[in-house]
Amino acid sequence: MIRIIGWDIGGANVKAARLLCADGRAESGRAVRRHFELWHNSNSLHSLLQTIYAELGPTDAMVVTMTGELCDAFADRAEGVAFIINAVRAAVPDIPLYAIDLDGRLMCLDTGEVELLTLAPTNWIAEAMVLATRQPDCLMMDIGSTTTDLIPIMGGRPIARGKRDIERLAHGELIYTGALRTPVAAIASGIPVRGVICRISAEYFAISADVYLALGQAHLGRLYLRSARRGRENERGGAASAGQSSLRRQQAPHSERASHYGRLYRRTADPTDYGGDVSGPLQDRERSPFPCRTGGDRRLPGGDLRKTTGPYSV
To answer: What are the tens digits of pLDDT across the range 262-312?
Structure first.
């Protein structure tokens, strides 16, 4: 029996699944999801991963996918990929670590060379490859909290035209419409108000969770507000103050509850929240708490990336 843990590190959620496999098939498993605002508290990712690992139990190998490398805590995608890989490695050391690349290959991160920018975003690839073994001809539609993936599958394999986000956006395979966190201005440019079409303010005044609250589908909006609140309470360790905050919100008028997360999002969208100095050079910003060596030159003139061996740094 082989034990495997798969990690999916997103910008707003961390997910993990532990499988017990025999003869190449999963016999049993367990999944865990934790709301975690990576852009707001990236330095706590390490401790969260340790907590989840302790809950799931020991493993013989790990595989990681990610989308959180694009959040505002990092200067660029490569820094985000390196940070997430290092966080997983530091949280669960001495366990073989693998990643899915943009071609759907399983890449060992402990030996050999790997190009960081080929390792993200890849959770949709892993999902499509699994679905293709069960539904060889279908359209995969994954509606997340912020975006929706549309992946055609034919002949038992994904046939998406794009791999990176910009390619998938261009081909309509990645849509910035989600069930909870999408800014309303990304969903519609105008709404009917008093008999006329009124343009929407392109601000963080409201997200799709607020829309559900306003339309009376409160179970969806409040579910996410509770999840977000619980994640922040865990980060701060302030259960008592969180309970008082929850009680105040339950007693607040509907309009105040509906706009709660919109206010939160505006506050955490401040680019200085992650602790760095946005006006200073990159090397002066707050860096990964897991320093490591690079296997070779990381950048060519013009900012291009060389292949490098792990552990990783930028």
So the answer is: 333 333 333 333 333 333 333 333 333 333 333 333 333 344 444 444 555
- Helix and strand counts by DSSP (H, E) for the chain: 9, 14
CA 63/CA 80 separation, integer angstroms: 17
CB 45 within 8 A of CB 9: yes
Q: How many CB atoms lie within 10 A of CB 252?
A: 13
Find all residues with CB under 8 Å of 130, minimum gap 6, and list them. none
Query: What CA–CA distances, in Å, run from 146 to 89, 176, 217?
Result: 27, 6, 18
Partnered with residue 139 across adjacent β-strands are 152
pLDDT at 64 over 80: yes
Q: 217 by DSSP, 3-state: which?
A: coil
HSE value, Cβ hemisphere, 13 Å, CA-based, for 280? 9
Q: Which residues contact 63 (CB under 8 A, 6 or more apart)?
A: 4, 5, 6, 7, 97, 98, 99, 100, 106, 126
* Gap between the Cα atoms of 96 and 210, Å rounded: 42
128 contacts 152 by C-beta, under 8 angstroms: no
Q: Scanning the structure block, which residue is given the tokens 């105008």?
A: 190
Residue 197 CB contacts under 8 Å (≥ 6 apart), including other chains: 190, 191
